[in-house]
Write a structure and sequence with these properties.
A hairpin with a 2-residue loop joins strand 22 (286-295) and strand 23. Helices cover 15% and strands 46% of the residues. It is of the alpha+beta class and 316 residues long. InterPro entries: Peptidase_S55 (IPR008763).
């Protein structure tokens, strides 16, 4: 009996020894991206995007929400247009404080304010990864905050589209640069937006994943990340994703700091640009993380979140 038990233990040890390399080989892999994307979030309300002085001396203030037109509840600009009459129109406005007020304007005045109101949040960012198994993507590495509402917007539907970089406004100390992009929302969207979390936007990839030329690579564990040379993937011209050399200079918990050392990127952009958030970072052939922020006074220096942390979508 003891001999059989001894042989069984030896057998189990050998089985475990042979299984371990296979388990490592099947570690989670994601496709690093780097494409510039246009982001659209459709909101369930209409808000004022700029201060507007009306002919009667009253103001529509930036951030106010138009709740009703002539007693009809409004959830979109199309609904607002349909509710405007040829005579006087009464608008119920919700102020930042939560209180409401009413204003009366003519048909002409109502149509004149249309360029100053919105029912969506849009912007530019960078696609970080696609999971080839689940077809889920992640982008940005940080949450979308509406610049007028000053908070993450409540949204009913979201979409991402491919963006083409037409021009670069270079960064300089104290003056963040940005990408000037063209987004064709008439094209088939790349994916939906299911969540706008602290660590980025996430959703389902709807385009043909077989057309992506890059292959899935293994996620680097946080304790494997090293100071020194790494690689940044991003688009700075058209829709072409290029690889640039950076230097990881600090690692702290699930975040890291880096410096752009690539002469071509520095010459073209001056450093990190607005719209680069989400750009993948690789090291030694593994997926490290995504760009999240720049240092305004030192635009060649940036911050990033590790991919293992980004996948949590928000802190534990």
């Amino acid at each position: 009996m003891k001999c059989r038990l001894h042989n069984l233990l030896i057998y189990l040890v050998l089985v475990i020894a042979f299984l371990t390399p296979s388990a490592v080989a099947e570690a989670k892999k994601l496709i690093p991206m780097g494409e510039s994307i246009g982001i659209q979030l459709e909101l369930p309300f209409v808000y004022v995007a700029h201060d507007v002085l009306l002919p009667n001396g009253q103001w529509l203030k930036k951030g106010e929400i138009i709740k009703e037109v002539n007693g009809k509840h409004i959830e979109s600009i199309e609904m607002l247009k349909a509710s405007i009459t040829e005579n006087q129109n009464t608008l119920t406005i919700k102020k930042d404080s939560g209180q409401t007020r009413t204003i009366t304007i003519t048909n002409e005045q109502a149509n004149n304010i249309l360029p100053f109101i919105k029912d969506e949040t849009d912007g530019i960012g960078t696609l970080t990864f696609i999971d080839p198994e689940t077809k889920e993507y992640g982008a940005l590495g940080h949450q979308i905050i509406d610049g007028v509402l000053n908070k993450p917007p409540e949204f009913t539907e979201g979409s991402i589209f491919l963006a083409s970089i037409e021009q670069i406004k270079k960064s300089s100390p104290g003056n963040p640069g940005y990408k000037i992009s063209v987004i064709n929302s008439d094209d088939i969207r790349l994916g939906n937006i299911s969540s706008n979390d602290i660590y980025g936007i996430f959703g389902n990839w709807e385009s043909d994943i077989n057309q992506i030329m890059r292959k899935p690579i293994e996620i680097m564990h946080d304790d494997e990340i090293q100071l020194g040379k790494a690689e940044l993937l991003t688009a700075i011209e058209g829709s072409k994703v290029e690889s640039f050399i950076i230097e990881i200079v600090k690692i702290e918990d699930n975040f890291l700091q880096f410096e752009i050392t690539d002469k071509k990127l520095l010459s073209k952009t001056g450093g990190i640009l607005q719209g680069m958030s989400g750009s993948p970072i690789l090291q030694n052939g593994k997926f490290v993380g995504a760009v999240t922020h720049m240092f305004v006074e030192q635009p060649a220096r940036g911050a990033a979140i590790t991919l293992s942390e980004m996948l949590k979508k928000k802190p534990d």
